[in-house]
Amino acid sequence: MTKKAKRILLEINDIKILTGSSYITAYRSMIHLKDALGKKKHQKVTISEYITYHGLNFDEVAESLSL
User: Fold this and answer.
1) DSSP for the chain?
2) DSSP code, position 46
3) What separation in angstroms does the CA of 37 have from each of 20, 30, 50?
4) What pLDDT score was predicted for residue 5?
5) What is the pTM of this model?
6) pLDDT value at position 49?
7) What are residue 9's phi and psi, to 5 degrees?
């Protein structure tokens, strides 16, 4: 039996789930986060970076995103 790989990258739909916001608001939040982290447009944001930046609890985020 193979193990299912755990996701490490944050998607805009994840931000929608976590914040209850619209797609465009979540998209803007992602842009702001990338800017704050010094990432380039093509670079991805990890779930861990999001949690650290916002000071969230990992277990609560993992439960919300079904990780």
Assistant:
1) -PPPPPP-B--HHHHHHHH---HHHHHHHHHHHHHHHT--TT---BHHHHHHHHT--HHHHHHHTT-
2) B
3) 23, 10, 10
4) 57
5) 0.84
6) 96
7) -95, 140
In the prediction, which pLDDT does 7 show?
84
> Residues, the chain, total?
67
Tokens representing 30 are 């992602």
Give the separation between CA 10 and CA 33, rounded to whole angstroms: 11
Tokens for 58, please give them: 């990992």
Token code pair at residue 1: 């039996």
Per-residue model confidence as pLDDT tens digits over 8-56: 999 999 999 999 999 999 999 999 999 999 999 999 999 999 999 999 9
State how far the alpha carbon of 7 is from the alpha carbons of 10, 22, 35, 41, in Å: 8, 22, 22, 20
